[in-house]
Write a structure and sequence with these properties.
Radius of gyration: 22 Å
Bound molecules: adenosine-5'-triphosphate, magnesium ion
Helix content: 25-40%
CATH architecture of the largest domain: 2-Layer Sandwich
CATH superfamily of the largest domain: ATPase, nucleotide binding domain
Number of strands: 13
Shape: globular
Strand order of the largest sheet: 3-2-1-4-8
CATH class of the largest domain: Alpha Beta
Order of helices and strands: HEEEHHEEHEHEHEHEEEHHHEHEH
Length: 364
């Protein structure tokens, strides 16, 4: 590259795409003076494409998903096809395995062999990826021998080929050119965990499921899915209060837990649902603390379900630790006058922002 072309290098834009069960989120970024600058972002509910209410989880065929992705790209006025895409946690199998001491060049082979014990389908049907979890210094110091003589802990991710093939068809249909697919966990961690926070738990309260990730020094250490999400609150509201699903969804979003005395029943039903979720999440947290003798210092809330009014107050009672809203937009340069809007939208856009940040870092 010539001197001039590097000075006048065109700013390249990239997209992060998160196709959730109830809504697609897209974020477009570009790099300017070393900072990630937000260019545009948008969200689109998938319910109407499946003939169900907004806010509900869907399982759309490929052609309908393509239609929806095209619509959101048009609405958000995106201007690039260069992107990455998040895959749902449910498409993957995540395991933590201990690898016996072997030379580094044999690691991949040994991990595939070990992984077979954890993966209930033939390895030819999955894409396998792994990363070695770095040892803590104190631990490594006590271990005799060089790095190759020590056993290692590895995080192994297996994704069913079928999911990847489906995503490839979706991307081909929309004309987007993704350079990678990654499980939404890793996008989310990149977008919401700050360096230096020792151990935290991320809760992604989506429409279909609630996902719990425990992260230590930036590395995933444990993940769980609770098969209940924010749509289950809506469904139980509709049933208990004899209202339509869209009315229930509307009440949930407008009043949440802050509807006042005339919405006592609404608050009670929401609280019962959330109590179950917080109970499960808290058990996961306490089990982890006990097993690894680690203190989980922070709970970070993401996902559209966490936007419920009064959600943090209840979460603070549910966990004996600091609880905060994810603020992934603070990793980006954004117009100051919209600060309030970004603080609100943060929890929903964590995954899409994390994907876009990775795509942007590939340009360096
Ligand atoms: N202001 C709000 N108050 C309460 N709930 C809300 C609010 N906004 C959105 N939700 C709920 O959040 C859910 C959507 O969240 P999100 O977009 O994170 O889910 P998703 O990514 O599509 O789902 P999943 O991750 O489970 O596949 C819907 O069920 C919706 O009802
Ligand atoms: Mg989601």
């Amino acid at each position: 590259m010539s001197f001039f072309s590097s000075i006048f290098k065109k700013e390249i834009s990239v997209l992060g795409l998160d196709i959730g069960s109830s809504a697609i989120k897209v974020v477009q970024l570009k790099k300017k003076r070393g900072r990630a600058v937000l260019e545009t972002y948008g969200e689109l509910a998938l319910g109407p494409y499946a003939g169900v209410e907004i806010g509900r989880a869907t399982s759309l065929p490929i052609d309908k998903t393509v239609e929806a992705v095209r619509d959101i790209l048009r609405e958000a006025k995106t201007t690039t096809v260069s992107c990455g895409a998040a895959l749902p946690l449910a498409s993957s199998l995540i395991s933590f395995i201990n690898v016996p001491p072997v030379p580094d060049k044999q690691l991949g082979e040994v991990i595939s062999l070990e992984a077979r014990k954890y993966i209930p389908v033939p390895l030819s049907e999955v894409m396998l990826d792994y990363s070695i979890i770095p040892r803590e210094e104190s631990y490594a110091d006590n271990d005799a021998g060089g790095a190759e003589q020590q056993s290692k802990d590895a995080l192994v991710v297996a994704i069913h080929n079928e999911f990847v093939n489906n995503y490839q068809s979706i991307m081909a249909g929309t004309g987007l050119a993704p350079s990678f697919y990654e499980i939404e966990i890793f996008s989310c961690i990149r977008a919401v965990v700050d360096q230096g926070v020792s151990t935290c738990m991320i809760i992604d309260f989506g429409a279909r499921a609630t996902k719990l990730y425990i992260v230590e020094r930036g590395m995933l250490r444990s993940s769980h899915i609770i098969n209940k999400g924010s749509q289950d609150i809506t469904l139980s509201l509709a049933k208990a209060m004899s209202v339509s699903i869209s009315e229930a969804e509307n009440m949930k979003r407008v009043h949440g837990l802050k509807g006042g005395p005339e919405y006592k029943e609404l608050s009670e039903i929401i609280t019962v649902n959330l109590d179950y979720m917080f109970y499960e999440a808290n058990s996961t947290l306490l089990n982890y603390q006990k097993k690894y003798r680690k203190n989980v210092a922070k709970v970070i809330l993401t996902g559209g379900g966490a936007l419920l009014k009064g959600f943090t107050d209840l979460a603070k009672i549910g966990f004996q630790t600091e609880v905060i809203y994810a603020d992934p937009f603070n990793k980006l340069e954004t117009p100051a006058f919209l600060a309030e809007e970004f603080a609100q939208a943060g929890p929903e856009f964590a995954v899409a922002i994390g994907v876009a940040l990775r795509r942007l870092s590939e340009l360096e």
